[in-house]
Batch of 3 targets.
Target 1
Amino acid sequence: MKNNSITAPIQINNSAEKSASNDLQKEKPRHLKGILVRALSLALLFGAAYLVYVLQNDFSRYNLSGLDSNWGIAILTVTGSLLLFRAGFFFYNLYLYLRYKPIASVTDAELPTVTVIVPAYNEGKQVWATLMSLAKSDYPEGKLELLAIDDGSKDDTWEWMQKAKEDLGDRVNIYQQPQNKGKRHALYRGFHLGTGEVFVTVDSDSEVSADTLRNLVSPFVVNDKCGAVAGNIRVLNNGQKALLPKMLDVSFVLSFEFVRSAESSLESVLCTPGALAAYRREAVFGCLDEWINQTFMGRPSDIGEDRAMTNMILKQGYHVLFQRNAFAYTNVPEKYTGLYKMFIRWGRSNVRENIAMAKYVFTDFREGSKTGSRVLFLNQVLKLLMSYPTILMMIFFISMDPVLFLASTLFSILIWSSFPVLFYAKKYKLSESFWAYSYSILYTFGLFWITPYAIATASKRGWLTRG
């Protein structure tokens, strides 16, 4: 017995050591692959910068010859104007970002009652992890109501919801849609079931930090005009072997912590993300019928429910803010196919909601200044309008001289992407920040077609990434 009792722990330790060793062996190739991709991206961009220097006489020749024709003058004028606008809008955003400050959490006594709604479809075990992270929130238990709604899943999502109910008891209520109706209908049911003064929506593939909920809803307490709040979204699965989540994490930091901070300074955040958002109850019910019955070109809208809700709340005259201190970590696509489908869905929603926004943004839709909202809208519209001319100019430059086109495009990426690199490095980790260069190369050459395609197919329905 003595020998067995001594030997067993040794065997366990050996097993644990082997497992740890195997994990390290698997991690090394992943780590080296990531380093190689970032190094190659930098080499490509700096090589392009050197090529631009070497070929500067050719660039000058093309610029001068371009001035000899009306087409050349028009192209140079449009390109120059776009560059000036982009630069001006960037510095405007930078000014707004520097003005932004997240609202600190209010006291437990001041916190409102909150209903958290988690719609789920074919999410499997992740929905359990999502609900457990919410249950661990540093929020008064008597003021927190958790609702999970299975939207007719075909996998074991409902079983995992039942497991969460078993673990959490009365702290969570679970419901099952009779059939898959879409995320919008699952949320609609949650809005009618919930009793909270504030609704919080959390995607079933997301997890939150302990202080997320209290930070997210505090703006409603200090600002009576606040109708919605966007959370700060980071990537949950960026520790996996896939490279896309690592790139998207850097992209998300710029999109949320810089862009939405700037929009929040204007009290006009344009989209509260489905992964984490909060809404004042009165604001939701002020547009709920319009939202659930929304159509585009005569067809029911089954995508972009987050952007649509934000738009309709802005239209009512409410402020929409961003809380940098309210984090949610969400799973993102790990393959190109899933990524472009997600972007197409977002792009179509963007087209639809900009059309909807055009109908009220130049009216007296709220008290106080409306200039900021209008500037943000015009920037969105300009991006859409310039998508086709940009592709035509790309084709024109490629036909004229593909080498000059490639060199100048990569050099532009080096310049424009250096800000996301510096921004991420200052806030998080320098080595990870270089993914911004890799992502910009991928987007420029692999995803440039998304916006034109989304415009041309804006009326199409379908989630695309749901199996």
Note: Residues 1-13 have pLDDT under 50 and may be disordered.
Target 2
Amino acid sequence: MAGSGLPSLGRVKLTDLAPAEGLPSDSYKLSVSTLTQSLAQYSAAIIQFPMSDGALLRAALDSARLYFQQKASYPSTDMINNNDPRDWCKTSGYYADSQLWQETYDYRPGLTPSESNNTMEFPPAGLPDIFALLGKAARDILDAISFFLNLRSSPFSEILDNVPLRTREVSSSVLSVCCHARPSFQGAQHHNFATQEDGQLVMFSDHEHQVDKSLISLVKSDKAGLHIKDFQGRWVLVDEDLGPQEAIVYPGLALYQATAGYVNPALHRTEISNLQSNLFGRSSLAFKLMPKSMTSLSCSEMRAAGHGVEAQFQLPVPVDDFMQRSHPTDQLFNRLNVQNFNFNATQDGSMKPLVRRRKNDSRTKPLPPSKRLRLEAQRVLKERVQDIADKKGIKLRFCNLKECENHIHTLDSPCASIRMEIGWPPGVPFVHPHDLPNKAKIGFLEAYEPGWTATHHDMELSLTEPGQPSQHPANCNFHPASTSYLLHYHKCLGM
């Protein structure tokens, strides 16, 4: 990355990141490259909103200052944040953290904040509009990262909130209106200070750093103070030179988990010691795009795109468990060794992803043909077969392989009606594609994936045992429009 990296945080126009039908435009490809390169180098990027949105952001920050200024100096006991991880998707309304010298008002659509002492409280103005603005931006940014990783369109839609929310649904994503170091807030008499490398006395939250458990976080503040650790381990002040319509974006732990570690979460901390003489403190808007609690973080999309997935990411993780679990960052990953998306400049000046991996790692080797076949069969099960079953209202309950070898020869077997209704290929046991023999997997794919064909040489290659030499197929038939094109392309090359 040396010599070809960005000299500072990348700036990207939000309008250039908006996805559109058809082939990607040059501005879209350039914006995606700038965004992902900035995330790789600095774990953050600057997003430029349209000028009209800048006025809305500025008005929201002004409203935040006024809201916190009228708050009492000593918050009541029930307004003190207890940091209970079980409340990760239930926070709403005002609370204070005396240790961090921070006050927060959480806006979560679908959840009405409880009023203390039966008093009417007026929240900061414009929260629904800001929530919609930042939420749409976060989804566009997430799709841009997915495009760069060669994932299918909107691969994380299953774990995100509905747009709009359905009746009685509560948003998992949250908009936090924050205020740091308000002089009239006297709940932090015993705060600690840390010394920066240059000798200046500064105060940082949590003494070290924080990491969001979100997919994507967007932060807009009225004063500089947000530090994020870059790829080389240096703390960078990322919001020092922001325009009125600009905000900081950085990835969180949930995206790290969902991309099998290819996108590192940002380690951040907030400097507030230089705000002692400021009348209002530091106000900020922080939107966190969160996964739904009743879903799981899975790396199936990464496997389907051909990315290597380490053992720690193989099994899906329930979101609620993930959010309540502690994630020590010193054990979570080593920032200088962990796999990360990197960049390689081509002759035409465009940027192409280059995966950074550890040396002598088994993931540097191409996937064996049998494993590629298994992953392709699992993808088709998820995208095609499950869709057919859902439309027909059928719950898929697969058989045991040995038992079903007899089922396929009888008309009154337990799975006969299901096989007939969803068009299960004749002669293939009604078993999860992961457990099918390789020849049966090929029959399964030929039945459900239009254009997927396998020649005799393809079959021999798929059944080659590890360690045995394989023959390059002299003729490889595939349909360019098929979603299996990449798999057959690799087979033709003998990869």
Note: Confidence is low (pLDDT under 50) at residues 188-207, 333-339, 343-364, 455-495.
Target 3
Amino acid sequence: MGSREERYQNHHGLVPLAALIGREMRSEKMEKPTVRYGCAAQSRKGEDYFLTKTDCQRVLGNPSSSFSVFAVFDGHNGNAAAIFSRDHLLNYVLSAIPRGLGRDEWLQALPRALVAGFVKADKEFQSKGQTSGTTVTFVIVDGWTVTVASVGDSRCILDAQGGAVCELTVDHRLEENVEERERVTASGGEVGRLSIVGGAQVGPLRCWPGGLCLSRSIGDMDVGEFIVPIPYVKQVKLSNAGGRLIIASDGIWDALSSEMAAKSCRGLPAELAARQVVKEALRARGLKDDTTCVVVDIIPPDNSVQPSPPPKKKNKFKALFFRKHSRDSALKLSKKLSAVGIVEELFEEGSAMLAERLGNDNSNGQSTSGLFMCAICQVDLAQSEGLSVHAGSIFSTSSKPWQGPFLCSDCRNKKDAMEGKRPSGVKVA
């Protein structure tokens, strides 16, 4: 027969609040860390925005289910896409998570919900006919678990206790990312440098049409839908020593390596640390771009672990040497973090193929109303209307094209466009 809670859920499709709170209490085996944050920014173009929200709740009315959200949005070709994403992306992500989940299941559902939320934000913004775009680095902190989703070249790094620095994002710049260049050209875009009078090519690699240096973003309807909003997602669980997150736009990362940014602010509280990172970036490069930094400290509840001391002064030669080699070092360190017990890597995926990212839905994508539901825009569908995300896809992880999750026709068209199966559906004069 099952427990009373299970019988209630099977009959109503919902879990009573008392049962959910009980689950939360059972799943919290370790006291939650304290989260403190600070923000700093210097504006040149007025296209950077950020989001800080520390009062979110998985179960409304239950403070023990709280989590925090931090994000940086670096707009281009105007600020409309950055503002739209700041205002709507969180709601789109949360609406893609099934109701009635316990904490562990909620965390497991986050990566897929982040993909759905990013794609929905892109689809909804493009429907407004505005041509701006934005990078997004979106961070959810739930206890000791950190989940990061990103498109573009804003970045999130983790400065763990003990001085290990690793990147929790992947830059989607065509200049450095070979896999993304290959994906864009295979999907119908062209990659090349800007041609000037006389035939000379200058500047970074760009995607044409449009001339965007990035391969993933939200917005950019005039560039082509092979510039996709599907985020790289990484989820890690920190040790009980905690750590510091630095989330920043490329105004920081064009001036400082990940290790330089982390070292520049060690020993400072979060608010002063954010200001210090911005100050160091401006000192190194000047105000050539909007420069935004959010620092988040995840602190053990007894605060027994003291912040690392500030770095000693280095001469200029050593600083240049560190900058040159820092990226390789950060990548090597990120591979070693799990081995030395600093973090536990729970999830990592960067594929741009929607069928891979949404996976298989054994519940056949049915909503609590009994209708089928679009996995992206969350609208109810009649059974005859839903199109499996796997149907006709060579990238499918399922041998059953009738298996969910399902997409409405608009979202299926968007999926096909992102994979280069049809011309972009949006043309701008």
Note: Residues 31-172+214-350 form a domain with the Phosphatase 2c; domain 1 fold (CATH 3.60.40.10).
